[in-house]
Amino acid sequence: LLQPAVSVGNVGQLATDLVISTLNMTKVGYFYTDCLVPMVGNNPYATAEENSMELSINAEVYSLPSKRLVVLQIRSPFIKNKYRPFCQTLLSWVKSSKCARVVLLSSSHAYQRDDEQLLGTPLRYLLTPDLQKAVGGLMQELNWKEMEKVAAYPGINDTEKVLHIPGGGITKLLFTESCSKGIQMAVLLKFCSEGDNIPDAFALVNYLNEWLQLIRSEVNTSSQWKIPSSWRLLFGNGLPPALF
């Protein structure tokens, strides 16, 4: 299962758009929840006039059996105080559906990085203990950087470290709940700022592709991903909507 967190710059959602559009994934259902702001809009992945009037809502499920891939796309923000009920419902569905692994695409405020996080790539990953056993070695081979923990009380007690993902929305809660429930989850995230987040989305989806090889390419470039029609139709210069 691949899904985005509703986080800074909506980078996870935009990267998920690129996956669905490029792989031409089939919509197979909806994820009904009262935890998201209700919304409805036209088909964001329309390829012809015939399917442009199909309706889309705030949480939809797409499938690609040939790659054993299911995608949950989220298109609206969370209602206040509904993070935890959503996580519980989602993880219950993950278990009942027997999803082997969950990959969460997210982002975090670039301006809130500590000194260590300023070094090297702006891309990070997290693995639950159950997934660490399976793919931890591969992440080291890819030379990926794990998300650093930061001081719980900077300047007062720098020895106590905690996981801090400012701007990450449900990311931390969903990850910690997955750890406690024995769910194999990976979080892939990028440090970024609000604005034109197209480059961030391409960077994150290329990061994902390094690991899962959703599309075959010797060199990860932006041109290999198919931009959804909604990005072009709503913004002539290719700038995507932050939210519908």
Automatic annotation (TrEMBL):
Subcellular location field: Nucleus
Superkingdom of the source species: Eukaryota
A GO cellular component annotation in the UniProt record: nucleus
Gene Ontology biological-process entries: proteasome assembly
InterPro entries: Proteasome_assmbl_chaperone_2, Proteasome_assmbl_chp_2_euk, PSMG2_sf
Alphabetized UniProt keyword annotations: Chaperone, Nucleus, Phosphoprotein
Described purpose of this protein according to its UniProt entry: Chaperone protein which promotes assembly of the 20S proteasome as part of a heterodimer with PSMG1. The PSMG1-PSMG2 heterodimer binds to the PSMA5 and PSMA7 proteasome subunits, promotes assembly of the proteasome alpha subunits into the heteroheptameric alpha ring and prevents alpha ring dimerization.
Similarity comment: Belongs to the PSMG2 family.
Subunit structure: Forms a heterodimer with PSMG1. The PSMG1-PSMG2 heterodimer interacts directly with the PSMA5 and PSMA7 proteasome alpha subunits.
Protein name: Proteasome assembly chaperone 2
Species of origin: Thalassarche chlororhynchos
